[in-house]
Amino acid sequence: MDIFDKIKKTMGPLGQYGKDAHGYFMFPKLEGEISPKMTFRGKEVLTWSLNNYLGLANHPEVRKADADAAAEYGLAYPMGARMMSGQTSKHEELEAALAEFVGKEDSYLLNFGYQGMVSIIDTLASRNDVIVYDSESHACIMDGIFLHKAKGGKSFVFPHNDIARCEKMLEFARKRATETGGGILVITEGVFGMAGDLGALDKIVALKDKFEFRLLVDDAHGFGTMGKTGAGTAEHFGVTDGVDVLFSTFAKSMASIGAFVASSEEVVSYLRYNLRSQIFAKSLPMPLVIGALKRLELLKTQTELKDNLWKVVNALQKGLKEAGFDLGKTESPVTPVFLNGSVPEATQLTMDLRENYSIFCSIVVYPVIPKDQLMLRIIPTAVHTLEDVDYTIKAFAEIKEKLEAGAYKSDKIANIL
Question: Mean per-residue pLDDT for 1-22?
């Protein structure tokens, strides 16, 4: 059989909607300056779908740092992988600054968050080691675990934030690790990026009194938004020392590209010399490194950015709850709005929001969430206003009323042509 034959039969759970949804519901184009107001299909929309938590994307100091670095170095320098010819003092400076900020001995830069997490898991866990992980872990964690299984490794999953079941899985893992002579790696997230709830880091760390394991935390959405200084969810819970390996990306609060992993000097040194995805990849370009240094500086010194973010978050979430909306268990800026409805209803509702209310936010449907449920995912930022919040709450109240009245009932997804 031709390997492409299967494509003719199915394009996948999301791809099946591609012909009807491409360019509107999936792969939409937002144009103009990154801000709460952008252009979608020639029309200005209030945008709630950008992971620009602190508003740094168009901060004047950030734009200047990016531009100056690009003018001085271009995008090619340094040329080659870090280990061979791509090392610079600026890369080392950023790593030291990140490590100090999150309370770890050292850190290592990664070109991409997704591939970085996959490689961290692959490098830390051998076939004799056992992984225990939260069931709602991000796709990058799951792919890392799939790779671990492909090597012959064993893993155990516990229901989302269910500490009793986590403890049970640790018992299984301990038995298995004793048989193989390996260790145990527990993986969870600081902030779960889809539903906005926090990983139970304090409770997981407490299990170290009973079990011997190391804890890896993906804090992509917590870095910059959680904790007194913005150092992340471990700081929020007061368990920085209990998190053995901390990962985060620059794609959220830092409004850039790239990532880092922080841990003890020994662990970071091991990762530095063994992460295949970095050893065989070009070094992070200098403008991104210098830009990240400026972003980190502003994250630490302009505390009003995080304060403004939470002012918007609190107003939005309070207002939506008072209007009768189900926001799940979010404790972070990520604001999911859960509604009951089918995929066609979701598209009709979303089209109404965008075309008649000029509000752009992400729509999430099955298979990401259960069937007959839909989720509007709102990402507040420090540069949104309370007027934006008030308008959005009123618009959402109207679309909810329409949904419950059956106004969006349809057997087909919305016609966007």
Answer: 82
- Give the CB-side neighbour count of residue 87, counting CA atoms within 13 A: 7
Phi, psi (degrees; rounded to nearest 5) at 231: -70, -10
Q: Radius of gyration over alpha carbons of the chain, in Å?
A: 22
217 near 260, Cβ under 8 Å?
no
Is 60 exceeded by the pLDDT of residue 417? no
**Beta strands 214-218 and 30-31: pairing type?**
unpaired
**Cis peptide upstream of residue 36 (ω within 30 degrees of 0):** no
Distances (CA, A) of 230 to 42, 298, 311: 37, 11, 15
* Of 169, 166, 131, residue with least CA distance to 150: 131
Instruction: Output the CA angle 223-224-225, nearest 5 degrees.
Output: 95
Angle of CA points 101, 272, 97, to nearest 5°: 20
**CA gap 417, 407 in Å, rounded:** 20
Taking a C-beta distance cutoff of 8 angstroms, is the pair 220, 210 a contact?
no
Q: Please write the tens of the pLDDT for every residue from 98-125.
A: 999 999 999 999 999 999 999 999 999 9
**What is the secondary structure of 3-15 as a DSSP string?**
TTHHHHH---TTG
Q: Give the tens place of pLDDT for each residue, 339-354.
A: 998 888 988 999 999 9
pTM given for the model: 0.95
Total Cβ atoms within 10 A of residue 27: 9
- Averaged pLDDT of the chain: 95
Name every residue whose Cβ is closer than 8 Å to that of residue 366 and which is 6 or more positions away in sequence: 13, 343, 372, 373
Separation of alpha carbons 413 and 263, rounded Å? 47
Using 50, 70 and 90 to split pLDDT, how confident is the model at 217? Answer: very high
Which structural domains are found in the chain, ordered by start?
5-53+304-404 (3.90.1150.10), 60-301 (3.40.640.10)
* SS3 state at 359: strand
Tell me if residue 375 falls in helix, strand or coil: strand
